Amino acid sequence: KNEVEQSPQNLTAQEGEFITINCSYSVGISALHWLQQHPGGGIVSLFMLSSGKKKHGRLIATINIQEKHSSLHITASHPRDSAVYICAAGSNYKLTFGKGTLLTVNP
Amino acid sequence: GAGVSQSPSNKVTEKGKDVELRCDPISGHTALYWYRQSLGQGLEFLIYFQGNSAPDKSGLPSDRFSAERTGGSVSTLTIQRTQQEDSAVYLCASREEEGTQYFGPGTRLLVL
Q1: What whole-number distance in Å separates Cα of residue A33 and Cα of residue A91?
Q2: For residue B56, which residues of chain A lie inside 8 Å, CB to CB?
Q3: Which chain B residues are Cβ-neighbours of A88 within 8 angstroms?
Q4: C-alpha span between B45 and B4 (Å, rounded)
């Protein structure tokens, strides 16, 4: 069993839909990261959080430390949100990564 | 300022040859990381530097892999006697004392 599990693996949505990607982890963490990787592109760090909730534009990330669970939400999804979203959990210096969620938003 | 840069962006080599991959972190970032992303696989931690020291080398897949960092800045990842299973995208990231990691564009390595 992977130490960081994401669901779903693949997600297809229509433009404007509300998107939720889930991440469960079994490793001890000091922070959880959400990353975005566009096809053929580099990786961008979206959020780093250790408690509560963070919001940036249409993106919201939440974490429940007791339940070892985090969610990434995208409101009013847009085709440009199509990418692989990766959850990573761990300490400041060592991260364990989920396998990623491929999101496709159709116009 | 400039982000994390990596070179080369692509590298094709023959099995058995040595390769050297370079990472230039963001200026002033003390922590530097190397990761590997194989086709169809998730990201895999390889090694972490704090300054020039590597307190955790546990992610290096074999003794053919080594890395160094000099002057608290540039890092090189060396793979000796490359094998086909070494084909992957090698990513470097850096960060300040605290905070998020900034990723480079990666080096795509293909071992024929």
Answers
A1: 10
A2: 93-94
A3: 43
A4: 17
**Helix (H) or strand (E) segment spanning residue A44:** strand A43-49
Give contacts of B 12-31 with A, CB under 8 A.
Answer: 31
Please write the tens of the pLDDT for every residue from A72-106: 999 999 999 999 999 999 876 788 899 999 999 99
Per-residue confidence of chain B (112 residues) as pLDDT tens digits?
579 999 999 999 999 999 999 999 999 899 999 999 988 778 999 999 998 999 888 889 999 999 999 888 999 999 999 999 999 999 999 988 777 889 999 999 999 9
B51 touches chain A (CB under 8 A): no
Q: Which A-chain residues 64-93 have CB contacts (< 8 A) with chain B?
A: 86, 88, 92-93
CA closest to B106 among chain A residues: A42
SS (H, E, C) chain B: CCCCEEECCEEEECCCCCEEEEEECCCCCCEEEEEEECCCCCEEEEEEEECCEEEECCCCCCCCEEEEECCCCCEEEEECCCCHHHCEEEEEEEECCCCCCEECCCEEEEEC
Could you count the other beta carbons within 10 Å of the beta carbon of residue A107? 7
Task: Say whether residue A56 is in contact with chain B using an 8 A CB cutoff.
Answer: no
B49-66 residue pLDDT tens: 998 999 888 889 999 999
Q: Which residues of B touch A100 (CB under 8 A)?
A: 42
